[in-house]
Amino acid sequence: MQAGEAEVDRRWVQGKAGRGGTGGRRGRPGGCECGEGGAGGGEARHHGRVQTIEEIRRHPVKSMLGERVAVAEVTSAGVEGDRVLAVVDAATGRVASAKNPRLWRALLAVAARTTGDGVHLTFPDGRTLAAKEADAALSELVGRPVRLTDVPPESGAVDRAVPEQVLEQGITADVAVEPSALRAGSFHDFAPVHLLTTATLAAVAKAAETPIDPTRYRPNILINTPEAEPGYLENTWVGREIKIGDELLLRVIARTPRCAIPTLEHGPLPRLKEALGIPARDNRLEPIPGMTPRACAGIYATVLHPGVIHPGDPVHLR
Q1: Which residues sit opposite 112 in a β-bridge?
Q2: Would you say residue 137 has pLDDT above 50?
Q3: What's the CA gap between 50 and 41, in Å, rounded?
Q4: Entry pTM
Q5: Assuming Cys at both sites, which of 44, 65, 298, 311 could form a disulfide with 196, CB separation 3.0 to 4.6 Å?
Q6: At 81, which CATH number?
Q7: CA proximity to 277, closest of 212, 194, 185
Q8: What's the domain range around 221?
């Protein structure tokens, strides 16, 4: 695996996440034994095996395809190079997000990668442009004037189309939107780090009867869990600390409520309504206490202690 490798991974398209076992069991809050301490003094240990990092991903531009990396520094701001740029609607000044697919789904056809010369964007027609020179091409792609910026709003929000309405009415329908707050001073939605387990991918894949590429859920860290683990096992990790590698320490603060993005085309990946429909059916719960139940898959975390991580690093629950 090389830094900057294209995000859409043919291993998942070919069925890695659709493996057998109990990955398709329906998840439920409080239904995961790993949340009850486990063996080995709080290690994330399952049937004698410790969880590890499967992949590390960053998305240099919000709502564009990202890249897998072989090493990442994680600080209080998240994975280095993740969501450092965003597209802004020139007419409204609002940050663009594919959470509102009627306006912004085309952004998911653009691949962003970080090089020694800055962020570069590859468009569906094969053109590659430096991000600082891409405003005109992006405006043409989305059909309205936009610009890229590296200056997050101090306090802002993106428009989030109501996911259930998108499922029912389609991605071109003018459905209701609601504000989704950005993390103060950043382009992250809620927290600087987003994690997902292969157990959850396997559960969705089994129910959908098709492999699920993790690209659809846009995690920073994909955690490899034993095949026998139930789906959505990370539901019970909220409030826990996660130690990754030698240094990185995270605190899980919320389950990840899913928007319409997982259902959309992501580069060569086709539309897949089940990527949202199945979590909506099988794992609808409060992302945080007191919040309206929503379809969830994955978890959000903040950084308690920074560190450098690699695929294969052990993951420990505390």
Answers
A1: 121
A2: yes
A3: 12
A4: 0.86
A5: 298
A6: 2.40.33.20
A7: 212
A8: 5-317
